[in-house]
Every structure is written in structure tokens, then in C-alpha cells.
Design goal:
- The chain has helices at residues 11-24, 45-50, 67-85, 97-108, 128-139, 148-156, 169-180, 197-200, 203-214, 226-235, 253-261, 272-279, 312-317, 333-346; strands at residues 3-8, 29-34, 58-59, 89-93, 113-116, 142-145, 163-165, 189-193, 220-223, 245-248, 263-268, 283-286, 302-304.
- By secondary structure, it is α/β, with parallel strands linked by helices.
- Helix 1 packs across helix 7, helix 1 (11-24) crosses helix 14 and helix 3 crosses helix 4 (97-108).
- It is built from 14 helices and 13 strands.
- The strands form 2 sheets. It has a 7-stranded parallel beta sheet with strand order 3-2-1-4-5-6-7, sandwiched between helices. A 6-stranded parallel beta sheet has the order 10-9-8-11-12-13.
- It folds into 2 domains: 2-168 and 329-346, Rossmann fold; 179-317, Glycogen Phosphorylase B (Rossmann fold, 3-Layer(aba) Sandwich), CATH 3.40.50.
- The structure holds uridine-diphosphate-N-acetylglucosamine.
């Protein structure tokens, strides 16, 4: 059996790895390294418990620090494990610092790199994720791109070999979540998640975002990322003044999908949640100046808003047009990806 090390570390990667771990069962000797980039129980352990995932084989405790320190610490530890385990390939997901750390280590040790969620671009190099994606794609040996624009982005950068368009593993997970739901969707509140540094790290901006959310005339539920929570505390912003906004702890995966199911609309700056909202057929407003998920923008299913935050209420009210189903696959991505990986490694 081929041995594959998967490097995971941030919340969305636990969700992306769950269907892959399942598809790998009895086909791959699957080893996981958790870098410890996310470490709070509600940002990490809760997903392993709820999604019935095996505990990581290696648990690092890298924690939070500057980008260089965080990525460097991960690399030091991952290198030791890769040298010891000598895997046939190393798999990384998406665009976090954990992704880049795993990819650089494997590249230097000449271990084939598999990148799941390849080819996404926001074209904003000020976002650390954009740098992480570009660098990971350029040193990967097998690239799984979830959309046609992602394939084109890779082509434009000269990456054409071993690039596959498969469904998106997050779509696999939304389908699983939907199967568990036995109530009809509703539109009771606005669901929001805001955690990008450019929205949270400026006192005036985060205050304006919260003030706009508070004045929508419909209740808002806000599961709050620790980064955002810490910033509000540092800035001395009293959250009780936003009486229409209910601040919640970070949610488990199925609880979050349940909240989305009953939301009128999602207001977010997350990458993954834009896609989850689309797959769940919920309108999204993205508090960013660009998105890597271009397909979600079609017919108003997702709208970008950045400078003119006072337009939020109006944008939320705008009706959506025709919905294009299955742009992120049909829920079989992990299986498709596993089959292609095995074909390559066994060739
Ligand atoms: C990271 C990813 C981002 C992804 C997000 C998902 C990078 C560069 N960014 O951003 O792409 O959308 O994860 O959530 O990799 N913190 C805690 N407890 C935790 C984790 C974080 O308190 O368990 C706090 C710390 O104050 C930390 C801050 O959140 O400094 C930011 O964490 P970090 O992992 O650096 O980046 P995220 O903002 O979570």
C-alpha cells in the first residue's frame, strides 16, 4: 500500500480532509500531521470528534505567531517526520501556512506533492493565502483544481502537467451535511463570519462592519473566530451595543451547516464559506474586494462589497437569478481524487 502523509492544521483543512480520509480507507496507508496552527477545541478537536476522523498520527504544537515563525516551526517538525516516514507522497489542502510548510518540506526532500484545491487565485498578493497558493501550485506534482477558471489560472502560469479538474471536497461534505437535515430550509436570520486581518485588524473598520450588521433590521448570528474576538477585546469594543447581533462561539461543522440552512443570507469574508453557501443555494455577500470563487458571483448568488459597507442592507435585498447546479461537483470529489492519486503512484 502506498504511504501518503497529509498535512492539516487550520479549521477548513479538517473539513476537507474528512472525505479524503474516508476515501483512502483500505486503499492508502494514510498518515496525518496536524501542525497545531489551530489549537482551540472549537477550532480543531470538535471536527475530529464530529466528523469521526482518526486522531492525527503526529500532533505538532506550532500555535499562533508571525507568518515566518509559524511556517518555519512547522517546517522544522514536518521535515523530521517526513524523513522518518519516507512517504510515497505528501498531500496538502488549500492555502494556509500549514499548506505551504508541508509543500516546501516535501519539495526539498523530493517527495511528490499533491495539492487539493489547486489553481485558485484572488490576484491579491497582499493576502498571505494568495502567496501560499501560488508557491504550492508551482512545486506540486499532482494538482486537483475544482473549477475551469482554476485550470486556466494554472495554464496561465505554465502549469499544465498532471492537472485534473475534479469536484470539490467541500461539496462532498455539504452533501453529507444535507443528508442529515430533516427540516425545510428557512430565512430566519443573517449568518455572518468575519476573520480576515484586513477586516478585523483596524478598529474603525470592524466597528463599521458590526454597526452595519446591527442595523439590517433582521437578527444576525455571528460565530466569532478567535482572531476577531481578540481584536474586539484589544480595541475595547463593547459587543453588547450591537443588540441585533448574537455572538456565538465557533461552531462545529454540522451546526454551521444547520445555521446556513436557516439563514436568509451569509455575510462573510471566508473563502470556503462562499462556496458552501453557493452549494447550499443561499445568497452570499462577501466583504472583500476580490474572490477566488468566481463561479459564485454569477446571477447575484455572491456579491463583493468592500469600500461601500453602507450598501450592505441594499445588496442583501437584491434578488438572485438562475442557479447553476453542481459547479463544485456532485459530492464524489474525494473518490475521484483518490482514484487519480492511486493511478499516478502505482504507474
Ligand atoms: C488561517 C488561514 C486562513 C483561513 C483561516 C481559517 C493562514 C495564513 N490563514 O487564518 O486562510 O481562512 O485560518 O480559520 O494560514 N487563534 C486562536 N485559537 C486558534 C487559532 C487561532 O486563538 O485555535 C487566534 C490567535 O490569536 C491567532 C489568530 O487567531 O493569532 C490567527 O490565527 P492564524 O492561524 O494565524 O490565522 P487565521 O486568521 O486563523
Amino acid at each position: 500500500m502506498k504511504k501518503i502523509i497529509s498535512v492539516i492544521g487550520a479549521r477548513p483543512q479538517f473539513i476537507k480532509h474528512a472525505p479524503i480520509e474516508f476515501a483512502f480507507k483500505e486503499k492508502v496507508n494514510s498518515i496525518t500531521i496536524h501542525t497545531g496552527q489551530h489549537y482551540d477545541k472549537r477550532m480543531s478537536q470538535v471536527f475530529f470528534d464530529e466528523l469521526d476522523m482518526s486522531p492525527p498520527h503526529y500532533q505538532l504544537s506550532v500555535g499562533s505567531s508571525s507568518h515566518g515563525e509559524q511556517t518555519g516551526k512547522m517546517m522544522i517538525e514536518i521535515e523530521k517526520i517526513v524523513n522518518e516516514e519516507k512517504p510515497d507522497a505528501l498531500l496538502v489542502y488549500g492555502d494556509t501556512n500549514s499548506t505551504l510548510a508541508g509543500a516546501i518540506v516535501a519539495s526539498k526532500l523530493h517527495i511528490p506533492i499533491i495539492h487539493v484545491e489547486a489553481g485558485l487565485r484572488s490576484f491579491n498578493k497582499k493576502m498571505p493565502e494568495e502567496v501560499n497558493r501560488i508557491m504550492t501550485d508551482h512545486i506540486s506534482d499532482l494538482l486537483f483544481a475544482p473549477t475551469d477558471p482554476a485550470i486556466e489560472n494554472l495554464q496561465n502560469e505554465g502549469i499544465t502537467k498532471n492537472v485534473y479538474k475534479t469536484g470539490d471536497v467541500m461539496c462532498d461534505m455539504v452533501r453529507i451535511a444535507q443528508e442529515r437535515m430533516n427540516d425545510e430550509p428557512s430565512s430566519q436570520f443573517i449568518l455572518t463570519t468575519i476573520h480576515r486581518p484586513y477586516n478585523t485588524d483596524d478598529k474603525e473598520r470592524i466597528f463599521t462592519i458590526l454597526s452595519q450588521l446591527n442595523s439590517l433590521g433582521i437578527p444576525v448570528k455571528f460565530p466569532i473566530h478567535p482572531r476577531t474576538k481578540n481584536r474586539l477585546k484589544e480595541f475595547g469594543i463593547d459587543t453588547s451595543q450591537f443588540e441585533n447581533v448574537e455572538f456565538l462561539e465557533p461552531q462545529s461543522y454540522f451546526d454551521m451547516m444547520e445555521l446556513l440552512h436557516h439563514a436568509k443570507c451569509l455575510v462573510t469574508d471566508s473563502g470556503g464559506m462562499q462556496k458552501e453557501a453557493y452549494i447550499a443555494e443561499k445568497k452570499c455577500v462577501t466583504v472583500r474586494s476580490e474572490t477566488e470563487w468566481l463561479g459564485t458571483l454569477k446571477n447575484g448568488w455572491n456579491t463583493l462589497i468592500f469600500d461601500n459597507l453602507d450598501e450592505l442592507a441594499e445588496v442583501i435585498q437584491q434578488p438572485v437569478g438562475e442557479y447553476t447546479p453542481n459547479i463544485y461537483g456532485t459530492g464524489q470529489a474525494a473518490q475521484e481524487i483518490t482514484d487519480i492519486i492511486l493511478k499516478h503512484l502505482e504507474a
